[in-house]
Amino acid sequence: MFVKYAQGFVVLPGGFGTLDELFEALTLVQTHKVTQFPVVLLDTQYWRGLVEWLRSAALGRETISAPDLDTFTITDDADVAVNLMLGDHSPFSPPRRPE
Questions:
Q1: Comparing C-alpha atoms, which of 61, 5, 80, 62 is closest to residue 37?
Q2: Do the beta carbons of residue 76 and residue 44 sit within 8 Å?
Q3: CA–CA gap between residue 98 and residue 90 (Å, rounded)
């Protein structure tokens, strides 16, 4: 129900529950069970290792596809997150990745 009524997600650093909700949302977007909506991960340093793992392990083994990595945006800027939630997707096509 959490995802059903959401129009986007801003995800802050967290533990297993946070990861569970994040991957549930990304899975529903990936499988087209919900319409595409912005998913923003705040704190590039925190999320960097996870994204690197997704690229090397999951993408490397073809358990996800390259476009799946474009279903979220990583930023340290709260204004970017707000603008994405408000529908300003244009500056991030594709979304920014950690350096």
A1: 5
A2: yes
A3: 18
pLDDT per residue, tens digit, the chain (99 aa), is 677 778 889 999 999 999 999 999 999 888 888 877 899 999 999 999 999 999 999 999 999 999 999 999 999 999 999 999 998 654 444 444 444
Residue among 86, 98, 96, 91 at smallest CA distance from 38: 86
The answer to whether the pTM exceeds 0.85 is no
Q: What are φ and ψ of residue 29, in 5° steps?
A: -70, -45
Residue 57 has what DSSP assignment? Answer: I
